[in-house]
Amino acid sequence: MQINILIVDDIKANLIALEALLETIDENYNIIQANSGSEALEFALNEKIDLIILDIQMPDMDGFEVAQLLKSNKETSDIPVIFLTAAFKSDEWIKKGFKLGAVDYLTKPIDENQFINRIALYTKLIKLVEDNRNKDRVLFESSKMVSMGEMIGNIAHQWRQPLSVISTGATGLQMQKEYGLLTDEVFEETCSMIDKNAQYLSKTIDDFRNFIKGDRVKEVFSLKEDIDSFLHLVEGSIKKHNINMVVDVSDDIKINGYANELTQCFINIFNNAKDVLDNIDEENRYIFISAFCEDGGTSQKRGQSVIIKIKDSGSGIPDDVIKKVFEPYFTTKHQSQGTGLGLHMTYNLVVTGMQGKITVENETYEYEGKEYTGAQFFIELPIS
Ligand SMILES: Nc1ncnc2c1ncn2[C@@H]1O[C@H](COP(=O)(O)OP(=O)(O)OP(=O)(O)O)[C@@H](O)[C@H]1O
Ligand SMILES: [Mg+2]
User: Which listed ligand is nearest to 346 at the C-alpha?
Assistant: First the structure.
């Protein structure tokens, strides 16, 4: 990975000296020079900058101002800034520099050894962070592939039933016509049934395509609709595993976030519940989904966050396991069955992606006069 270092100084000679010094640390650094604060901001916004070494005393815009502007912009706020100054050496200025978020404050004349060691350390850290980010990205993609594979299986399962309805309907029409038994009524009925099933198939494909396309636009969407498309995607599994779904979500709950990613979270949580429910008697297999607002009500007031509760009747998560379920690669399943990424991914999508919260606990509860125990997930999502 190449490290892009932006050096900012209004005096050209300083830039040249600094560049020469940096090149002694690593000749592969890509060094970009800026002669003023505004030029620095422009570079920071338009290029991928990994580290900024910033002079303080400059005409027009001084280094402090530049740092402040960098911090206030979401796109540049994470770039580490090092102040390098000959003039502002007092404690008061150093304090101010760190307060503005600088990672370091160095003074001139430069102590070369100190400078070299520190820059080498920072770039090592930057590389480490970047490596981790790349790993996360790969992890995400592979996790998405896993659930895509699972979903194709789901869809195949889901399609079997309507396809067989369509095909039986069509051959039935042919036969009845051949024997002269076809009435107008049967004809109408069968055609509308075929049409209904074909539309259902097409809806499944739309849901699937929307999911894969994954247009990442933050938007306000209806939670109920999101849950409906999730249910659509897992309908095959629900039937195959004889799971009773109890969904209680009011139509008017809105969420500000990424609809597709929330669908993915539901699928991940559902898949885990499905696995544990396989060990439970068929008539006791339940998944409950409900949602309410911060104040406990089901109709949302402006700016209120939403809490989604998903619980199963799979007898819960053992105490030593529950602490680790969101960790990457943590699984209690056989290698061929689980990668341990489902809930880690869900955590990232909710917490990092949508500034929400997710927690899990075991819950013993009563439903229709019977007692059940299971895992209960809470997802809290802000509305704005
Ligand atoms: N509803 C649940 N009931 C009981 N245990 C659960 C439940 N959900 C998750 N777990 C436990 O948490 C572990 C981690 O779940 P996670 O979804 O992250 O990974 P996984 O299901 O093992 O693998 P993957 O989802 O990547 O295929 C599971 O292996 C399981 O032991
Ligand atoms: Mg899982």
Answer: 1
Average pLDDT, the chain: 90
Shared fold status for 4-110 and 217-384: no
Domain positions in the chain are 4-110, 217-384
Q: Are 268 and 310 in contact (CB under 8 A)?
A: no
Continuous segment of H or E residues that includes residue 190 = helix 184-213
Q: Which ligand has the minimum distance to the alpha carbon of residue 315? A: 1
Q: Is 274 in the pocket of ligand 1 (CB under 6 A)?
A: no
Is the Cβ atom of 79 under 6 angstroms away from ligand 1? no
∠ CA 80-355-73, rounded to 5°: 35
Q: What CATH class has 4-110?
A: alpha beta
User: Would you identify the CATH topology of the domain 217-384?
Assistant: Heat Shock Protein 90 (3.30.565)
Q: Is 373 in the pocket of ligand 1 (CB under 6 A)?
A: no
Q: Which residues neighbour 158 within 8 Å (Cβ) at sequence distance 6 or greater?
A: 204, 232, 235, 236
User: Which pair of tokens denotes residue 240?
Assistant: 């195959």
Q: Is the CB of 338 under 6 A from ligand 1?
A: yes
Q: Is pLDDT above 60 for 384?
A: no
User: Which own/partner pairs from 71-80 qualify as long-range (CB within 8 Å, at least 24 positions apart)?
Assistant: 71/100, 71/101, 73/45, 75/45, 76/41, 76/44, 76/45, 76/49, 77/101, 79/44, 79/49, 79/50, 79/51, 79/52, 80/50, 80/51, 80/52, 80/122, 80/126
**pLDDT of 311 strictly over 70:** yes
pTM above 0.70, yes or no: no
Q: Which ligand minimizes its atom distance to the CA of 331?
A: 1
Nearest CA to ligand 1 atom 8: 272
Question: 214 pLDDT band (50/70/90 cuts)?
Answer: low
136 C-alpha to ligand 2 centroid (Å): 17
Asked if residue 341 has its Cβ within 6 Å of ligand 1, the reply is yes
Q: What is the pLDDT of residues 77-131, one digit of tens each?
A: 999 999 999 988 889 999 999 999 899 999 989 999 999 999 999 999 999 988 8
